[in-house]
Each structure stands twice: as C-alpha cells, then as structure tokens.
Amino acid sequence: MSFPSRKSRGRMICTVCGIGTTKKVEKKHQARYNGEPVEVSGVEVYHCDHCGQDSLTPEQARMYSRAVKNEVRKKFGLLPPEQIVAIRERAGLTQEELEELLGQGPKVVTRWESGSVIQGRSADTVLRLIEREPELIKTLREIQRQRSRQQQRYTSDGSPTPQPAGG
User: Residue 155: its pLDDT value, please?
Assistant: First the structure.
C-alpha cells in the first residue's frame, strides 16, 4: 500500500500509477504481525480504479496498525487496551507506577493503553492477577524494594551498575 492520492480537479489521482482515480472503500485485509497472520475487517483504504492498488492516509495507516494489533490480542487472548486502563485505574496506579512494578521501561504502559504496542503474555498474566487479587500490588512493591536493595548492595561494593531489564 502507498500513500494517498493527490487531488486534481476535485478527483483523487492515484500516486501509484498516476492515471486512475481513487475511491475510499472498506475491505478485509490479510495482515501479519511478528509473523502472525490475522484478518482485519473494515479497513478503510483508497482504491485505484485503474491499477487496483490501495493507498492509505497517515491516519488510516495508524487505524489499520491498531486494528491489526487488536486482532492479534484477540487471537492470543490478551487484554484489550481499555481493560488494561481499567485494571490500572482500579488498582490506583499511575502508568509510571505500573511500569516500575512490572519492570517495564518508560512509556510502555502508555503504549499498551493506547493500543500501539501489544503487551507480552507474562505482563498480561500479572495484569489479570492484579485485577483478581488487588492485594498482590503489596507483594509486587515488596519485590521491587528487595530488588532495589540488591542493586544498592551490588553497586556499593564498587562493582559496575547493572542495567535494568526493559521491555
């Protein structure tokens, strides 16, 4: 797929062939995400009546990317973004606090919640556990404190500072 057509006398000229005109249509599309095939319905594209090529606006491309990721989440039984938000908010955590508790890098939870990144299965499992047993947050905080103490002991003896696992 390419970027959308340019306008010429009120018509959208195809940027692929430069001859045909494009029309906004909805299609089913076969996609792959990290090698996983999924089918996405209702993909909005501009279709050329001459060469048959489809093109997307930047906004359509963003919507398509999110739709593919949503299908992957469904396929693997992972939480959708809005449920991640709900679990975090019910737990009374900020995005940054959840990132720390799960050992994630900056803005990872933001990306999960916006739908731009799919959470891994292990993070998904911990989120589901937090949803079912909110008191586990205390345990996660204790694990975080233990880890911090271990890191402080490691660096206080002159050894190199370890890099945190991100992800």
Answer: 73
